[in-house]
Write a structure and sequence with these properties.
Layout: H1 2-5, H2 9-23, H3 28-49, H4 58-84, E1 93-98, H5 104-116, E2 120-126, E3 131-136, H6 142-161
Antiparallel strand pairs: 1-3, 2-3
Helix pairs in contact: 2-3, 4-6, 5-6
Length: 163
């Protein structure tokens, strides 16, 4: 019965807590709205979320979250310097990153992580050739960047989802 109304209890709790944190108000109205959002959003989203791969390593997920957050901060500084400096020094390049991930959702997450990091954009997920086309704003060594992307993001995703 509980699973019927709360198909994703952690998501429900996170949504309710997020709402309360954003509003900073613990009045009865906001508590009721937080509970309503925490129940309604996962119920409406359940058909889309049921096919997601299960997290097998929460510790690896936390490490990946910290790595991505750190990389976003550092990349913002680096891209700011590149953009504000002489643009003639830039070496933009398209990279073909071979995919080991087999699940479409984890592959999409991999592409999203790359896009969130300033200076790189995922352009195409090629499912036939099992590769990801990535544009890098400035790259001295394409092979080194591909290895770094795979090590920092794909390897943890493989550990997290096992696919």
């Amino acid at each position: 019965m509980i699973r019927r109304w709360l198909p994703f209890p952690l998501l429900s709790a996170a949504l309710a807590a997020g709402w309360l944190a954003l509003t900073g108000d613990l009045s009865a109205g906001h508590l009721l709205l937080a509970a309503t959002l925490g129940v309604a959003i996962p119920l409406v989203s359940a058909p889309f979320l049921e096919h997601l791969p299960r997290v097998r390593s929460p510790a690896a997920a936390l490490r990946l979250l910290l790595t991505v957050t750190w990389d976003i901060v550092i990349a913002n500084i680096a891209v700011s310097r590149l953009v504000l400096g002489p643009t003639g020094r830039l070496s933009p390049v398209f990279l073909r990153v071979p995919l080991e991930l087999s699940n479409t959702q984890s592959t999409a997450l991999f592409a999203s992580i790359i896009t969130m990091t300033p200076g790189t954009v995922s352009a195409v997920i090629d499912t036939e050739n099992r590769e990801l086309l990535v544009h890098a704003l400035d790259c001295e060594s394409p092979d080194a960047l591909i290895a770094d992307i795979k090590k920092r993001y794909e390897k943890p995703l493989l550990e997290i989802f096992g696919c």
